[in-house]
Amino acid sequence: MASPAAAGSASVGVGVPKIPEFLAATAGGRPVPAVGLGTASFPFGEKDVRAAALAALELGYRHLDTASLYGSERAVGEAVAEAVRRGVVASREEVFVTTKMWCSQSHPDLVLPSLRESLQNLQMEYVDLYLIHWPVATKPGKPQFPIKREDIVPMDLSGVWRAMEECHRLGLARMIGVSNFTTTKLQQLLSIAEIPPAVNQVEMNPIWQQKKLIEFCKDKGIHVTAYSPLGGQGMSNAVLRCEVLEEISKARGKSVAQISLRWIYEQGASMVVKSLKLERLKENMEIFNWELSDEDRLKIGQIPQHKKVRLTGILSSEGTTSVDLAELDVVEM
Ligand SMILES: NC(=O)c1ccc[n+]([C@@H]2O[C@H](COP(=O)([O-])OP(=O)(O)OC[C@H]3O[C@@H](n4cnc5c(N)ncnc54)[C@H](OP(=O)(O)O)[C@@H]3O)[C@@H](O)[C@H]2O)c1
């Protein structure tokens, strides 16, 4: 994985700050802007996403993260089209767009049609990055959340990845990758892939630092993108309430959110952070012209670890499955 020092800068209009980029290892791959806008809101849908994405592009964001599950693809596409119309960006090419295939689409014969459907929603010819959302397959159908336990079926990872590779060869996905993959799942994938995954998008922040996974991905040339970089949505936010981060935030004159995002950037990972508020969109990209001290990094390195997003958390509480969930819901430190 590229270090911040190796990161380049996206080109943006005069007076708009540049967000640095990481070079993903894939041949012909696109640089990944270090900070992107997450567009998953709960409940899922496109409410306010178009305005937030357009505001983000005006501020200098060049990376938008969506998924077939989120119901935000259409709004993301509209924001990009509007940004082109208004001259905020010169063309769609300037924006790095990621979307993801849901578990109900993770079947060899459904990958390409699912990407075509996402492109139709986005009104785009290609996405910059197409991801397998989870290493889990459910019965074919429209994306549903939470997943019904009885809908889980064994996943044909090899067949699904072949279809992902085909999406790349057809030019519909400039890069292909995965999300929520552990080192074990990545190893399985690397043993069968002709085109290795360019990116693994995972939960990552000072409360869930992913040290083992980060090292593994660095070694294999897989770029890591952090999701829930502020600890995710909802009241029980262990990142924004972390005393160690609060202490550092006071000493540095930065917000707790900025301390968390800066720490992620210094790990060599890009991140997708969600906000629908203009002030926060600005705050979340002001992390590049200062750095943490060695002492800050040491303190953050000692924060007790807690994983928030678990497979069981995206499943219905009732019902049974014949698939071994323990094999899928692995927590790696
Ligand atoms: N691949 C996956 O399985 C997966 C899973 C989860 C998420 N994601 C992606 O990652 C994105 C981000 O993750 P996330 O949405 O879970 O959570 P997050 O970005 O860690 O946190 C978002 C929450 O923090 C608030 N917030 C944003 N900026 C803030 C700031 N500067 N100060 C205080 N609060 C702030 C937001 O509220 P306001 O909107 O009110 O500002 C929102 O409630 C998602 O939108 C999605 O695109 C991917």
UniProtKB/TrEMBL annotation:
One Gene Ontology biological process: siderophore biosynthetic process
Q: Which UniProt keywords apply?
A: Oxidoreductase
Where on this chain does substrate bind? H133
Q: Which PROSITE patterns match?
A: ALDOKETO_REDUCTASE_1, ALDOKETO_REDUCTASE_2, ALDOKETO_REDUCTASE_3
Domain NADP-dependent oxidoreductase as annotated: residue spans:
35-297
GO-annotated molecular function: 3''-deamino-3''-oxonicotianamine reductase activity
Record-annotated site: Lowers pKa of active site Tyr: K100
Catalytic-site annotation from UniProt: Y70 (proton donor)
The family database entries (Pfam families) matched by this protein are listed as: Aldo_ket_red
Family affiliation:
Belongs to the aldo/keto reductase family.
Instruction: Report the PANTHER family cross-referenced here.
Output: ALDO/KETO REDUCTASE
State the protein's name.
NADP-dependent oxidoreductase domain-containing protein
